[in-house]
Design goal:
The structure holds 2 protein chains of 2 kinds. In chain A, about 70% of the residues lie in helices and about 0% in strands. Chain A is mainly alpha-helical. Chain A has a single domain (about 20-420), classed as Formate dehydrogenase/DMSO reductase fold, CATH 1.20.1630. Chain A is globular. Chain A starts with a helix and ends with a helix. Chain B folds into 2 domains: about 5-45; about 100-315, Alpha-Beta Plaits (2-Layer Sandwich). Chain B is about 30% helix and about 15% strand. A 4-stranded mixed beta sheet of chain B has the order 10-2-12-11. Classes of the chains: A mainly alpha, B alpha+beta. Chains A and B meet through helix 2, helix 6 and helix 15 of A and helix 1, helix 5, helix 6 and strand 7 of B.
């Protein structure tokens, strides 16, 4: 027992050490991210001291770009399943070894989600009121309490799966199926649930006709399964470039077909939504009019949404054409998907739900500089986490860090790891 | 990395020590810089004053407070208010009365849009003057239309009422099925037996989900630390009512709990010069509101189709 704990401790120590070791590119990247993190921390400290008045939010538009990013990132986290399903249900060989990169991305995305909801709280010091047993979690009535549970559960599931697989690889032994396969299948359903619950957060509000539509849930999933795998395609290519980890083009193209189908469904659902809104008219349509066309001289969101629609449609055309089989075009397409969907779900879904207010007042929103700095800080924090996870995972998967060379590590702790190549 | 790996095996122990000392120094330099940067980043927190206290941080949920706990809490609030405003307030925890359910009736034929109710409410309920928080929003509507999207919110003529218009004040509708209560993740807002939906300002985490859920735009958030001039502070306070709020929490109309649970009318009812506003106990068949609901022919519950079932009725003189 004590040996087991000691072994695990050495494993963690080696993982922690390797995170601080790399070539100049690694230091430059991590240094830049750290600078952004600290700028974000500073902006958040200002917000904490002065209140949310330093954001662009108001009583009229009471959620802004924090919740928008949160919504987008829940989707990214959920999209990890789009790699898990082909591997564990359809036994796809190409993606098999890459699943872990998707799951690590999910972990980083959930950490960012938690950060985004925390910075949105007016009283973060009272977060403990949410802890079941200690506080007063309003479960099951409040969808936000569901979100607290499913997000933290998803985080634990993925940390367990990734951690266990990596630790087994470190020991050079085959992972015990019973100890992770059931969790993989739970995580598949759980991933769908995190994004559905996040959609229900909006859908369940009868007083906000723009959100009160059953199609929001399916749209969330379709857009998540577009933007998530698109992000993974880009991430895998970065991994392939900066490490010696072998990732086949075929794996990227498998992900491309997922993005392709999801984007087509996403655009179809958008068409369904727009038709229902505009053809039937009525009260429901005011927010949509404001979003797509502008309303009574207010049109802050119009350029945003048309950019998103242009990006999404261009991406869909590119995905359908064979040209996106070439990686250069595929990368462009992925960028379009990610940007388009980020706008669509953020500025295009969260903000217009508040405009006009339930009393018909028009008030616009745009994020303040301080708010933007906090967002950049959290994104930098997420990228920092993901980079560290990969920095640990890649050498373990390649066998460069393993139980076999542990003795060497213990003998010459300092020099050994410094010499370890960034592979 | 700068060294040739083949050279590694030949490093004598002494050299290895030197290497780790160098790397130790380098690492500590990086860490020190990092910590200094983080400390500099957190510097704005030095401006935090009266954000919270240990007593408040560990305070239990309202419904779990024993009478002794509550006594201490009320003392703490009185001390805090006295420290901040130099006035010793009288803070009470007023409970709902048995056999009472409050209902509000508002006569749309009479309202002249003078907004006296708005200002009386601000004065009574210690709302922040900067930034400005108001519980009542008066809509200027065009005769013949009940479409709130065409209403004017910031009308400012020399004289009211204006020809061709009627006025509709909106505040918390004290719903039977309040969406705000349902969505709150921490039970910080709930409906009391007398029909008033209240907020525990010491429990709210400030997520603003209730504000998004309210179909009447009745809730207000303290985006900044509220400020009230000392001489304007109303010292007659209730825990669930008009005691001064903190930065980062939600507030809204609570039918002037500090007055109504002590047998008085809400401030807006008292101040209205046109007799527009009627308030009372619907469980008492002889109350004014019972009479109105029995005898007036047309009522409107705003957004009735949402099923929120407000305790706030708009009626006409017919």
């Amino acid at each position: 027992m004590i040996t087991a704990i000691r072994n695990y401790f050495i494993f963690l120590l080696r993982c922690a050490r390797i995170a601080f070791v790399g070539d100049w590119r690694y230091y430059a990247w991590m240094g830049t991210l750290t600078v952004f993190c600290i700028l974000g921390l500073n902006a958040y400290a200002k917000q904490f001291a002065n209140g949310l008045v330093v954001t662009g939010m108001s009583d009229q538009v009471s959620w802004g770009v924090y919740i928008a990013n949160f919504t987008f990132l829940v989707g990214v986290a959920a999209a990890a399943v789009m790699m898990v399903i082909p591997v564990y249900i359809y036994d796809n060989e190409e993606l098999h070894d890459l699943v872990i990169f998707g799951e690590l991305l999910a972990v980083a995305a959930i950490l960012m989600c938690l950060a985004f909801v925390t910075v949105d709280l007016g009283r973060p010091d009272r977060f403990w009121h949410l802890i079941p047993g200690l506080g007063q979690l309003n479960f099951p009535a409040s969808m936000l309490s569901w979100d607290v549970i499913v997000l933290n559960g998803y985080l634990l599931l993925n940390v367990h799966i990734c951690g266990y697989l990596l630790y087994s690889r470190y020991h050079g032994r085959k992972p015990a199926r019973w100890f992770y396969i059931p969790f993989v299948f739970i995580a598949i359903f759980w991933a769908i649930s995190i994004h559905t619950v996040t959609a229900f957060l909006y859908v369940g509000l009868g007083g906000r006709p723009f959100w009160n539509s059953a199609i929001i849930g399916p749209r969330f999933l379709a857009s998540a399964f577009t933007a998530g795998p698109a992000l993974i395609i880009l991430a895998l290519q970065v991994i392939r470039r900066v490490t010696k980890y072998n990732i086949s083009d075929k794996a990227l193209l498998t992900l491309r077909s997922i993005v392709q189908v999801s984007m087509i469904i996403n655009v179809f659902l958008l068409v369904c939504e727009i038709f229902t809104e505009f053809y039937s008219g009525g009260l429901h349509v005011v927010s949509s009019k404001y979003l797509y066309l502008g309303f009574h001289g207010y049109h802050a969101l119009v350029p945003w949404i048309w950019t998103a629609i242009t990006f999404n449609l261009t991406a869909m055309v590119l995905l359908v054409l064979p040209v996106s089989r070439s990686l250069r075009w595929l990368n462009l397409t992925c960028m379009l998907c990610i940007t388009g969907i980020w706008i669509e779900k953020g500025m295009g879904l969260v903000i217009p739900g508040f405009i006009p207010t339930p009393l018909g007042e028009m008030a616009e929103y745009s994020p303040s500089l301080n708010e933007a700095l906090v967002c950049f800080g959290i994104w930098a924090f997420g990228l920092l986490c993901y980079t560290i996870f990969l920095r640990m995972a890649v050498p373990i998967l390649q066998g460069n860090i393993s139980k076999a060379n542990e003795g060497e590590f213990l003998r010459t702790a300092a020099q050994q790891e410094v010499r370890e190549p960034l592979s | 990395m700068s060294q040739d790996p083949s050279h590694k095996e030949n490093i004598p122990a002494l050299d290895a020590d030197g290497l780790s000392r160098r790397s130790f120094l380098r690492t500590s330099a990086v860490f020190t810089t990092g910590l200094a940067a983080i400390a500099a980043g957190l510097a704005p927190l030095r401006n935090l004053k009266d954000f919270t206290s240990m007593e408040q941080f560990v305070q239990k949920y309202y419904k779990e407070l024993t009478p002794e706990d509550m006594e201490k809490v009320l003392k703490r609030i009185e001390n805090e208010v006295e420290k901040q405003y130099g006035i010793r307030p009288h803070v009470r925890d007023l409970k709902p009365m048995d056999g009472v359910e409050y209902v509000y009736c508002l006569n749309l034929s009479r309202c002249i849009g003078c907004r006296k109710c708005v200002h009386a409410c601000v004065a009574e309920n210690n709302q922040s003057r900067n930034p400005e928080i108001q519980y009542i929003r008066v809509l200027k509507m065009t005769n013949g239309s009940f479409d709130m999207e065409k209403a004017e919110h910031d009308y400012d003529p020399a004289m009211v009422p204006e020809k061709g218009h009627f006025y509709m004040p909106v505040q918390c509708q004290q719903c039977h099925n309040p969406p705000c209560v349902k969505v709150c993740p921490v039970h910080a807002t709930w409906q009391e037996t007398d029909g008033i939906t209240v907020i525990d300002y010491d429990w709210c985490i400030g997520c603003r989900y209730c504000e998004a859920a309210c179909p009447y735009w009745a809730r207000r958030f303290n985006f900044a630390k509220p400020s009230i001039p000392k001489e304007r502070l109303n010292p007659n306070m209730a825990y669930l009512g008009n005691r001064p709020r903190k930065q980062g929490v939600m507030e809204k109309c609570h039918f002037c709990i500090q007055r109504t649970r002590a047998g008085r009318y809400p401030a807006c009812v008292e101040v209205c010069p046109a007799g527009t506003r009627k308030f009372g106990n619907i469980l008492d068949p002889n109350s004014e509101v019972s009479y109105i609901l029995k005898n007036k022919r047309v009522f409107i519950q705003l957004k009735e189709e949402l099923g929120t079932s407000p305790r706030f009725f708009y009626y006409f003189d017919v």
